[in-house]
Amino acid sequence: MKTAIITDSAANLQKETLAKYPNLFVVPLMIVVDEKSYRDEIEITTDEVYQLLDDHDVSTSLPSIDDLNKLLDQLKKDGYTDAIVLNLSSGLSGTFNAFRLAFESVEGINITHMDTKTLGGGLAIMVEQACEMVSQNISIPQIIKSLNKLRYEDSIALYTIGTLKYLRKGGRIGKVEGTIGNILRIKPVITVNDEGVYVTVSKGFGIQRSFLAMKDLLVEKFKNAAIDLIVHFGDDLEKAKQLGESLRKELNIRNISLYKLTPVLGIHTGPVMFAYVARKV
């Protein structure tokens, strides 16, 4: 039995993670700029996306099914017998369903397909856990059970943004809009709920208040338990470092990782965004 882990680029995986696991593969989502398509993080960068957002027609699109099929063909040639496929939330993208339809005609490899109901760092920690468990020869049913526990019990993902206009433009506003209205300085704290859509869990008058609300939610969930923390950011690395270190005062943090947001996610948030993704260890 030889098992591959497949995900999409909304997992926002770091180069170090991809290098660590040779059986981990990413199918890129597509970014469309003025009707021309680019593979996420391969053919366009986050900084380029931010420069184009306000003056060009910029949107996201599903991964190329040709890319997926070529990957599956290569995996079969390389002797893989099984694949665990972890996609971003079906409530935020059609990617899961596109993959599901493609898998209906696939032969020669056993596919276990999971709708993670999350994205970004929340998806990344699930992918990394799956890779670790495969390396330990743990059965696929046990891996899926563990991933569900990680997603719904042992982790949380929260983010705040400077403006809602990019979420609104991309149609990803979900259940956020009605909660905060159009009061310009009210900044939402957003999570992905168990149904896999964005909801507001708190809000602050100004982004600093949102940071405090996010910290309080982390403390409420984890208390003194040891955690690993990912801090996502748009274009402000120094602020992300500051935020991460400030959380050490009130949380039992083992590791902090700083993740610049992948282009396909940055399109929907804009450059002023920060997220905390934490998991119990």
Output the strand order for the largest sheet: 2-1-6-7
Radius of gyration: 18 Å
What share of the residues lie within helices?
25-40%
Mean pLDDT: 93
Structural class based on helices, strands and sheet pairing = alpha/beta
Termini distance? 28 Å
Assign an overall shape: globular
Low-confidence stretches: none
| Pattern of helices and strands | EHEEEHEHEHEHHEHHEEHEHEHE
- Note the beta-strand portion: 25-35%
Largest sheet: 4 strands, parallel
Number of strands: 13
Number of helices: 11
Question: If you had to describe this structure to a student in words, what would you say it looks like?
Answer:
This protein is α/β, with parallel strands linked by helices. 38% of the residues lie in helices and 29% in strands. It contains 11 helices and 13 strands. α10 links the parallel β11 (226-233) and β12. The longest helix has 16 residues, at 207-222. The radius of gyration is 18 Å and the shape is globular. The relative contact order is 0.16. The mean pLDDT is 93.
